[in-house]
Amino acid sequence: MYILVEAKIGKPIKITAARSLNFANIAKECCDRKGIQMVGIIDSASPYVIEDIENFLKNGDAYEIKDGGIIYKDKVCIILGSEIETSEINDEGKTGSAHNLCYFPSLEDIKGFSKEMSTHIKNMTLSSQRANISAYQLIDIVEKYHGILIPAHAFTPHKSFYGNCTSRLSRIFQDKFDKIFAIELGLSADTELADQISELETRSFITNSDAHSLPKIAREYNKLLLNDISFKELVKALKREEGRKILANYGLDPKLGKYHRTYCETCDRAIEGNPPIGQCPYCHGTNITMGVLDRIVKIRDKEKSISPEYRPPYIYQIPLTFIPGLGSKTIDKLLSTFETEMNILHKLSQDDIEAVVGEKVAKTIINAREGKASIQSGGGGVYGKLTVG
User: Fold this and answer.
1) 322, 258 contact by CB (below 8 A)
2) Rounded to whole angstroms, how far apart are CA atoms 364 and 325?
3) β-strands 263-264, 288-289: how paired?
4) Rounded Cα distance, 51 and 74, in Å
C-alpha cells in the first residue's frame, strides 16, 4: 500500500511557493515527517528544476529505476511531472484555460517534453505557464514522451476544465477521452460531488495536496495497492489493472477548500444557501466567483450521487495546519514525538495526543478525525475554517 501526493517547487519556479520547497527538501519531508512513499513533483519540466534533479542524483541519496521514478533513500519514489495550462474554447465559444498534470517515467522523458513544450510556452523556467495549444493537442505530446495526462483540480472556478471551460470533459478530449483515465478532484470537491457527473463513472479520482510549502504536503493524498513503488505501478493503479488500485482517497472536507462556495466579490464573503447560487442575496449583484459545489450542482446530470462499485472510500482529514491553536512549534513537537502527521491524524488516541498538546487541542484533533468539527465554508480564494465553540 503506497501513497501519492503532489507538490510544487519554490521560487523562482513558482511565484506563490515557499523558497524551502526544493527537490531535496520535498523528498526529505515526505520521508521523515509525512510518511509518504510516493510523491509527484509537477514543476520538473523547468530547466532550473531539471538541473536541481541532476545535482540531486549526483549526491548518491537517490537513483532512477527502469520502471520509472526516482527512489530516495530506498523509501520514497519521486514521480516527475509538469503542470501545463492549455488554451480551450469554452461552452459559450469564448476562450478559457485549464491546468493539466503531466507525469513521466524518467528524467530523459521530461527533458524531451520540456524541450518540445518550449516551442509552445514563452517561459519554461516558470511553472504552470500557459501554452498556445489545447489539451486535445497536449495529450499527444505527453504520450510521445511516455507520460500520462490528468486534468488538475477539475472543478475550481479558475484554470480548470469543469470550472472554466466546459460542462463535459468529453467535449474537450473528443475521440481521445478514453486516454483520460483519472481526474484530480481538488481541495474543494470530494467523491460524492464528482460522482454526480455520469461521464466520470469510469475515471479514477485522485486527491493531491497541491502543496506550495513543505507543511502542506499530504494535506490530501491517496492510498494505493501496488507491487512496488514506480511510475509503471502507479499507472496500473490509476487504470485499475492487474489488481492494482486506489484503496482510499484522503482529503479535506471540501468546505475547507478555498473555492467550495460561491463568493461575492462586492460583499467580500462566501455565500451559504442552496446551490447553485448565481446572485448575491445580500447586495443582489452578480459580481461573483462561482464555487465548486455550486458549479457541480449546475452542470450535474445525476440528481443523486451514485458511485461505481470500484470507487474507493473518501476519508476526510483535517491537517494539523488547519487546527486552531496549533502553531508550528507545537506541530514540530508532535512530529518529534509521534514521527509522522498520518499517525497523529488517523491512529493515535486522544490521551496520547493530549499528553503533548493538552486536552483542548487534542479534542479538536479527534473531533476533526471523527467528522464532528464545525466548519465555516471557504470561497473566493479564502480557505474554510474550523470553528471551536
Assistant:
1) no
2) 10
3) antiparallel
4) 22
pLDDT tens figures, 138-182 = 999 999 999 999 999 999 998 999 999 999 999 999 999 999 999
Q: Which distant-in-sequence residues (6+ apart) come within 8 Å of 387 by Cβ?
A: 374, 375, 376
Domain of 133, CATH number, reads: 3.20.20.140
For 127, the grid coordinates are 511553472
Q: Which amino acid is at 236?
A: K
* 152 touches 288 (CB < 8 A): no
Phi, psi of 108 (to 5 degrees): -60, -40
**Tell me, what DSSP letter sits at residue 60?**
T
Q: Per the domain annotation, does 320 fall within a domain?
A: no
- Provide the residue range defining the domain that includes 74: 2-255
**C-alpha dihedral, 303 to 309 to 311 to 313, nearest 10°:** 90
pTM value? Answer: 0.92
Inside any domain, residue 97:
yes
Residue 90 pLDDT > 90: no
Length of the chain: 389
Helix (H) / strand (E) element for 253: namely none
> Based on the structure, what is the number of domains in the chain?
1
336, burial (CB in 10 Å: exposed 0-12, middle 13-18, buried 19+): exposed
> Which of 213 and 337 is assigned the larger pLDDT?
337
Contacts of 31 (CB under 8 A, 6+ apart): 72, 73, 75, 76
Q: Where are the beta strands (DSSP E) in the chain?
A: 2-7, 38-41, 62-64, 70-72, 76-89, 95-104, 148-151, 182-184, 204-206, 221-225, 245-251, 263-264, 269-270, 288-289, 314-316, 374-376, 385-387
* Angle between helix 359-369 and helix 350-357 axes, rounded to 10 deg: 140
Query: What is the structure's pLDDT at 1?
Result: 45
Q: Would you state the cell numbers that stand for residue 295, as one nine-digit string?
A: 458549479
CA distance 194 to 189: 7
357: closest CA among 371, 339, 340, 344? 344
